[in-house]
Amino acid sequence: MSQAGLNVPEVLDWDRDHGFMLLQDLGTQTMIEMVDRDVPDANRDLYLRAVDALVAWQAASRPGVLPDYDAPLLSRELALFPDWYLARHRGVAVEGGVRDTLDATFKLIVERNLGSPRVYVHRDFMPRNLMMPADPSEHRLGVLDFQDAVYGPITYDIASLMRDAFLSWDEEFVLDITVRYWQKAQQAGLPVDSDFGEFYKAVEWMGLQRHLKVAGIFARLTLRDGKPRYLADAPRFLAYIRATASRYRELAPLLRLVDEVEGTQQTAAYVFGRV
Predict the structure, then answer these.
(1) Residues in CB range of 275: below 8 A, 6 or more apart
(2) Which of 152, 186, 197, 209 could form a disulfide with 121 if both were Cys (CB 3.0 to 4.6 A apart)?
(3) Candidate CATH numbers 3.30.530.20, 3.40.190.10, 3.90.1200.10, 3.90.1150.10; the one for domain 29-262
(4) How many Å apart are CA 152 and CA 122, to the nearest integer?
């Protein structure tokens, strides 16, 4: 990431035998601590700094450097939702029609996302992992937690940034930052769809995969690892899942399943750029 011009911690020393690493200190204040949750537009400049870091990271992409974010990995991540969220947290028997619905939906989600152009993917590109530089002359945000980076869909990290695990934005702000990312990506020569409406749909499908995965991870953190604070954010992810599933006919079975499990009701929705 440093070769791409990003502000990342330098490895100062490494004790391989004992598993210790000494890293450069990027400061103590994360981007999420600077966010004004009540006034989305007040955060535009901050999010555009994050977008600049993301575009620089993606522009440095080369195949064969990072592990592939392939169908088996995407599928293993999706399996966390039925295994941990549905079965263990909600007590749902994942069999019969439930299993059929999930298998068909997951196959569709994987196919859609593997159709996106491929770049470097951070996999947790969100305000909790972005640092405010301690040096006032440094404009670049610091980037942490990149050890699980892969080579995969270009839509993943912008979906992570704008559909956050720990805070939610209205769609007007999400669209505003996403279209600005799309414009900067085009200017950098990145392989984003020339039609923003189509690109935004692809971002939604990628976000859906991530939200299903994270709902499962948060259930696992609570039930297996004894960290209940994570599952407190489950309603945010279920809202993301329902919002996307309500926009696409192909996802209607998933929406019905989630509504049955959660006791929620379907509402009308629209797709940006859809005719």
Answers:
(1) none
(2) 152
(3) 3.90.1200.10
(4) 10
Using CA atoms, how far apart are residues 194 and 120, in angstroms rounded to an integer? 20
Segments of the chain with pLDDT less than 50: 12, 268, 270, 272-275
Per-residue CA distances from 145 to 4, 25, 149, 175 (Å)? 16, 13, 9, 26
- Give residue 239's region: left, alpha or beta (phi > 0; psi -120 to 50): alpha
Q: How many CA atoms within 13 Å lie on the side-chain side of 68?
A: 7
Decide if 246 contacts 208 (C-beta within 8 A): no
User: Kindly report the CA angle at 34 between 30 and 40, in degrees rounded to 5?
Assistant: 130
Residue 37: count of CB within 10 angstroms of its CB: 11
Q: Which residue type, as a one-letter code, is found at position 56? A: A
The two structure tokens encoding residue 30: 């994360």
Q: What is the pTM of this model?
A: 0.89
Concatenate the DSSP letters of all residues of 196-235 into one string.
Answer: HHHHHHHHHHHHHHHHHHHHHHHHHHHHTT--TTTGGGHH
* Per-residue pLDDT tens digits for 248-269: 999 999 999 999 999 987 654 5
Element (H, E) at 108: helix 96-114
Q: Which strand (E) or helix (H) includes residue 13?
A: strand 11-15
Which of 21-26's residues contact partners 24+ apart within 8 Å by CB, and which partners? 26/131, 26/133, 26/134, 26/142, 26/144
pLDDT digit string (tens) for 21-58? 555 556 678 999 999 999 999 999 999 999 999 999 99
Q: What's the rounded Cα separation, in Å, for the pair 268 and 207?
A: 20
Q: Six-digit token pair at 236?
A: 């945010």
